[in-house]
Design goal:
5 helices; single chain; alpha/beta
């Protein structure tokens, strides 16, 4: 059964004059949360084989730290995950081929909006409530669905859980 994990990057440094948003790095607490989130994903028995990661520094760092717990996962930087909307994220997901479990590492508000867009009948109500208020930094929504990546659309997946690395 295909599984989509939508993760929001961990806590980053605050915006500052002269610092491009794309170049913001993780705060110390974000580094710890990234490692913990990777551990939580592995502990849940999830084994992503592909990670699609926004090119922003904070998402790349989040993935690098998460990946220490997910060693068999190939990663690709996807420019389209930075400053996209739900429609853009759906287009990226619909282009996935030949993998069972994929993790997307991106940004708000698109991460939570996309998770809510995909979640349908059979979703865990606690997980849905957590995502309804936005996906916090260092957390991931897990969605399972039947069918192909190319056909995944609105309300066609089941959100099973929201995992967090934030309690570090």
């Amino acid at each position: 059964m295909p599984t989509l994990i939508i993760a929001r990057h961990a806590k980053a440094e605050a915006p500052a004059p002269g610092l491009q948003d794309m170049d913001r790095t993780l705060a110390l607490i974000g580094r710890k949360a990234s490692m913990k989130l990777g551990e939580e994903i592995a502990a849940a028995g999830l084994k992503p084989s592909l990670a699609l990661v926004s090119p922003a520094t904070r998402t790349q760092q989040t993935w690098k730290l998460m990946s220490s717990s997910l060693p068999a996962c190939e990663s690709r930087s996807v420019d389209g995950l930075y400053e996209t909307d739900v429609e853009g994220l759906v287009e990226i997901v619909n282009g996935i081929e030949d993998v069972d479990t994929v993790i997307l590492v991106g940004h708000e508000p698109t991460s939570s909006a996309a998770a809510a867009f995909f979640a349908g009948v059979g979703s865990d109500t606690t997980a849905l409530k957590r995502v309804a208020h936005g996906l916090p930094t260092g957390t991931a929504a897990v969605l399972e669905f039947d069918g192909s990546w190319a056909d995944l659309g609105s309300r066609q997946a089941r959100m099973t859980v929201v995992l967090s690395g934030r309690d570090v």
